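User: These chains co-purify. Model them together.
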Amino acid sequence: MARAAAASDVFNAISETHRREILDALMPGERPVGELVDALRLTQAQVSKHLRVLSDAGLVKCRADGRRRLYRVDHERLRPLHDWMEKYERHWNARLDRLDDYLGDLQRKDAE
Amino acid sequence: MTLTRRHGSATVALPSEREVLVTRKFDAPAELLFDVLTKPEHVRVWFTDGDQDLEVCDIDLRVGGDYRYVGVFADGTRCAFHGTFIEIERPTRTVETWVFEGRPDDEAVETVELHEQGGVTTMRNVLAFKDQATRDATLWAAADGVHAADGIQGSYDNLEDYLATLT
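Assistant: Joint model of the two components:
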């Protein structure tokens, strides 16, 4: 199940608070490591370690700009997570819509 | 049947690494919603759709009492889960263990809270797993099952559309 494996990599990568903060910090656009260090108040080594996990899951991409390395979010790779949330939400909504309709029926019957 | 739903859709959130939260508002008093969520004669009406038959719906609503639901899809696939009630405070709260029988070692704790304000009741359903990996694996498996069911439901919808053109 290649699809599920890809999704669990993504889940694992975002399971850590600092990694989620890094993704948030990169949402507006690409940034060098130094800015992430300042924004998150972590050491360069910590930020690098988290960026490596995010890179391995394919969630961030990196390019060289002279001597700097710029990181950005790969939005396409976040899609499995969105898909999963949507699927789960659809499932709940289908069931709770039926519950909602049933509550309506019961109360109308009661009012008659 | 199409009804206007004043309070719209459920929202799903991941409030922590090991939890999943579903919130939804209903146009009904908490007492009624509590009964509809916890009495088998009510649950049988809304829990499953045409694609799934609720083969077992046992609810022993007391602290230490067990519940078990078994749904059967049109293709014969069974989807079962069960648990034991830990806390019951009618009509505002239940806490129970939650085991998806496809993954029996990954027990979670479900907390259902109902909050009524001005005739509208908000339901908060939190499933707390022992850790993040367990949550993701269990919910992913469940969502995949649902995905399969979506396909079946889609074909029923198509059939219904087709039948409508014949009459």
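The longest helix of chain B spans residues 132-166.
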